[in-house]
Structure formats: C-alpha cells, structure tokens
C-alpha cells in the first residue's frame, strides 16, 4: 500500500476513535464510528485477495447495520426524552437497541459470526487493529451508558460469549481464528462486570489489548499463521518464541502472569455483588479457553514438530527482535506485581 494512503487511513482511525471517546452527543459518536469503519476497510482489503475482499465486505455490512441501529436508538431516545446526551439514555427500547448495536460492533454472542471470518481474511497487523483499536470506541460507549443498560441481558450475553468463545476455539488450527474466539471470550468477561464496576471493564480491556498486541507482534515477526507453522517457529527467533508461550498463558489468565489480574478482580467483584453462581459459571467456562491456550503454548515451544518426511524444514534466520515487541511481552507477563499501583489510579 502507498505510504501516504496508509498514513491517511491510520490518521483517520486515530481521529475517529478520538471523536467517539470524547463526544457527549450521539451524532458525534456515530460520526466517529463511521470514520473508523471507512478507514479500516482499505486496510482489510489491501492484499486484493478474494478472502480479504470478502472480509472487508462482511465487515462493512455488519458495521453499517450496527451504526444504523445505534443512530436509530439515539433518535428514539431524543424523540421521547428530548436528550441527545450519551449519558442520558433512559428510554427502555432505546437501551435495548443500543445494546444490540454495540454487541454487533464488538462481536458479542449472538452477533459474533462475522468476527472470526473477518480476522481470518485480514493480515496479522490488521487483525490486531480489529481485535483492539476498533473495539475501543464501542467499549467506551458501553462504559458511558452502563447505568441505563439491562443487567440480565448483558449477563446472558456475557456468559454465552465466554462459553462460545472457549467452545469454538477448541477445534481451530488457524491462529487468527483462535485469537478471534479468544477476543469473544474476553468480551464476555468485560461485559459481565460492566454494570457493577465499569472501570474494571476498561482495565480488563487495556490489559487484554496489551497481551494481544504482544502476541500478534510475535506472530508477525515469526510469520506464523497456523499451528503447523507455529511448531517450526522456534528456529527463527528462539527467545521470542519461548516468551510467546508465557504471553499466551497470560492471556489464559494463569497466575502469576498479568492476565490473572482482571479475572481475579472480576470474580472478586461478582462475589461482592452476591453473584457467586455467575462467578463460578464464568470461571469454569474460562477452562475451555485455557485448553486451546495450552495447546498454542505447547506448539510454540515444541522443538521437534511431528512433520511428515517431505516437510520443508525452516532454516534458522538471524532476525532482530523489535524493541516494541519485547517491551509488550515483558509487560504482558510481569505486570501483576504492579497491580496495587494500577488499582490506585483514579
């Protein structure tokens, strides 16, 4: 892609995100979401492969539908209450439509079908944008409207997302699809605590984005797209592949890694709210995800992959490790001791 065009699209992504997260008016928030959608489409389809074009078409249709629902819910709320303020969403039907619209934008169950297919048709760096940056503005809108949303609906969608994200990831061999179902599962954790502690939702999103960025940068450095190539990735950058195992286990939420912190706090908060059964269910559902994270970690560290005799061996190539990648991996592994500092930030 032309560097000037890439700069324009990247700036538009930053602009759209900034407009949405800093606006108080529904029209401005909607405009920011539309700028984001239009900026990411060329990045998805830049390879001109039929799969990439199909992914960008699916993404456009889903996001356009979700934006229409969001605009309709805000107009309905303004019609009944005379308020265009994002925090003044009070009409019940408007709240229901907004929850549906944001769920479609994020890829929450039952509006998740587009997300794995779009990630599979995109490059690794575009997939990282779709899994993190593009989900930030809708998450902020959920954060701002959280007092008005229906707790029972959000809880049902969250548990369904955690269950389906773990269940569907079990039989995948394509790493981008595994990361997509991982994202759906983590969205379930973020959504279930949204009503009770919205700041905890944001902290979970930040730590998820950090760990996911570290994993995607590592996969891009080793050019790994599926499990069979991950088994031979150790010959390219051995140290990076070894730390990839820890980053994957951090994403699974194993102590004493960084990913354990949000799950620990979410379960603690649910218990405080006397939702012990809900906390138990979502904790058990995370074991499904743990299985395929362990499988990925095993494939990342295995040194003798079970290949047929005619498999092309990959030679050890001396690649330099990007400073950003190593920093992200260190943070995604070792941030748990800093948790008292993180939790005291207002």
Note down, in words, how this protein is organized.
It comes from Sayornis phoebe. It is a multi-pass membrane protein. Its EC number is 7.1.1.2. It is globular, with a radius of gyration of 20 Å. It has two domains: 1-124, no CATH class; 150-345, no CATH class. It has 16 helices and no strands. By secondary structure, the protein is mainly α. The protein has helices at 3-22, 26-44, 50-81, 92-106, 114-120, 124-131, 136-145, 151-168, 175-192, 198-222, 227-230, 238-252, 260-272, 276-301, 323-334, 339-343. It starts with a helix and ends with a helix. Helices cover 71% and strands 0% of the residues. The mean pLDDT is 87. Helix 13 runs antiparallel to helix 14.
State which percent range the strand residues make up.
Answer: under 5%
Amino-to-carboxy terminus distance: 41 Å
What is the radius of gyration computed over CA atoms, rounded to a whole number of angstroms?
Answer: 20 Å
The tally of beta strands, per DSSP, is 0
- Secondary-structure element order, as H and E? HHHHHHHHHHHHHHHH
Shape: globular
Class by helix and strand content? mainly alpha
């Amino acid at each position: 892609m032309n560097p000037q065009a890439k700069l324009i699209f990247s700036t538009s992504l930053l602009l759209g995100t900034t407009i949405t997260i800093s606006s108080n008016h529904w029209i401005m928030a909607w405009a920011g979401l539309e700028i984001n959608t239009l900026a990411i489409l060329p990045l998805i389809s830049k390879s001109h492969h039929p799969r990439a074009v199909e992914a960008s078409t699916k993404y456009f249709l889903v996001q356009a539908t979700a934006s229409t629902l969001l605009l309709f819910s805000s107009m309905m709320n303004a019609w009944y209450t005379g308020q265009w303020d994002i925090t003044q969403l009070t009409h019940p039907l408007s709240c229901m439509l907004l929850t549906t619209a944001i769920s479609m934008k994020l890829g929450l169950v039952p509006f998740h079908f587009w997300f794995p297919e779009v990630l599979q048709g995109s490059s690794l760096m575009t997939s990282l944008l779709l899994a993190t940056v593009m989900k930030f503005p809708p998450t902020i809108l959920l954060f701002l409207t959280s007092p008005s949303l229906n707790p029972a609906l959000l809880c049902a969608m969250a548990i369904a997302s955690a269950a389906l994200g773990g269940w569907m990831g079990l039989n995948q061999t394509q790493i981008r699809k595994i990361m997509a179902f991982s994202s759906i599962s983590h969205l379930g954790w973020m959504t279930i605590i949204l009503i009770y502690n919205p700041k905890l939702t944001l902290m979970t999103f930040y730590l998820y984005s950090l760990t996911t960025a570290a994993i995607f940068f590592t996969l891009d450095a080793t050019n790994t797209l599926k499990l069979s190539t991950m088994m031979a990735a150790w010959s390219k950058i051995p140290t990076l592949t070894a730390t990839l195992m820890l980053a994957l286990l951090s994403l699974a939420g194993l102590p004493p890694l960084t990913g354990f912190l949000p799950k620990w706090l979410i379960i603690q908060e649910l218990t405080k709210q006397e939702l012990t059964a809900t906390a138990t269910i979502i904790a058990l559902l995370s074991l499904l995800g743990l299985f395929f994270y362990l499988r990925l970690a095993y494939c990342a560290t295995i040194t003798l992959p079970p290949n047929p005799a005619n498999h092309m061996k990959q030679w050890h190539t001396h690649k330099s490790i990007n400073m950003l990648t190593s920093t992200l991996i260190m943070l995604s592994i070792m941030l748990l001791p800093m948790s008292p500092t993180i939790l005291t930030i207002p």
